[in-house]
Amino acid sequence: xxxxxxxxxxxxxxxxxxxxxxxxxxxxxxxxxxxxxxxxxxxxxxxxxxxxxxxxxxxxxxxxxxxxxxxxxxxxxxxxxxxxxxxxxxxxxxxxxxxxxxxxxxxxxxxxxxxxxxxxxxxxxxxxxxxxxxxxxxxxxxxxxxxxxxxxxxxxxxxxxxxxxxxxxxxxxxxxxxxxxxxxxxxxxxxxxxxxxxxxxxxxxxxxxxxxxxxxxxxxxxxxxxxxxxxxxxxxxxxxxxxxxxxxxxxxxxxxxxxxxxxxxxxxxxxxxxxxxxxxxxxxxxxxxxxxxxxxxxxxxxxxxxxxxxxxxxxxxxxxxxxxxxxxxxxxxxxxxxxxxxxxxxxxxxxxxxxxxxxxxxxxxxxxxxxxxxxxxxxxxxxxxxxxxxxxxxxxxxxxxxxxxxxxxxxxxxxxxxxxxx
Length: 422
Description:
Elements: E1 2-6, H1 10-21, E2 25-29, H2 37-41, H3 43-46, H4 51-60, E3 64-67, H5 69-72, E4 77-80, H6 87-100, E5 105-109, H7 117-122, E6 131-136, H8 145-150, E7 155-158, H9 162-176, E8 182-185, H10 187-218, H11 222-231, H12 249-266, H13 270-281, H14 284-292, E9 301-305, H15 320-330, E10 334-338, H16 343-350, E11 356-359, E12 371-374, H17 386-392, E13 397-400, H18 407-412, E14 416-418
């Protein structure tokens, strides 16, 4: 199939690469003068594991190409993988496609525009002539995008047109042949289902964080509590790890979209409260540091391990590290940062700020540290050389924002340890 991909988000690039690898001729719409896909991807996207090599390989094999918007509009199959805030641009794209085509059209909306937006785009096309806008729920996460697309656990799409449904099934066949759940519903229902799932995950994260904060006040260990909760088959262990809050623009924007919908239709502020409490949760490691040093961290050396909003990603989107770095700078502390992938983005953001220093070696970042704040649970942080850490630090204080370390072990090694709910 010949497919045009509209958008330069992570989902667009990952979808383009996977579909091209499956034998389709895929065209990424690009009206800029940039012809190098690696440059166009941007640092956070090209750092997605395996993506840069896949895109380069498919460009070399010419199954993946750039195309301008005028030429792309003439194709029959389109995928919209655009920023959630780009709905107005999407309407222009669909309108332009409609004006240039009287034949059958399939436009798959893969963007998080909100409930009812796919139906609004459909009004620009002739549905009776098999010109269809369908909705395909995107379920990828940064750091695992390619694996999520190649081996989905379930697929949900919204479409009420028989021809379009058949085309979507054919397009998804390489990834759904052995799938247990392929759910088909109306576009509005599929959009609402996507929002509902994301909202449920946010509620679980918010709830376990609230319990962790309460556990500290009650002097109980949240790890024991979550094990008991997870053992109940009605609850399970998924998304039940307390920490210093969630980040990620797409995740946060999707939750905000549902929060706005709930407020508008139901006058409910449940998810607004989750978002507000999540912002407070991001500051928990800083508060623990602040209290430990009795409200005076002026001129201290504070090391941060993990700046990205999640392991496997270089992105800083709404990451807890950003709030904490800002707070440390405001208190005249010196910030020493290590991250396996995000240092380039940190350096772009803070430039030559005299209080912010980046390190490619995590142990070097600990030299003369008055505290270590672990904010992202990268695998390389789980089993470090504690003896080396202790010898390099000026004060053996660890504030574990992800409950990665064993508290009893750290205390036996003469560290001062603070976790979340422990």
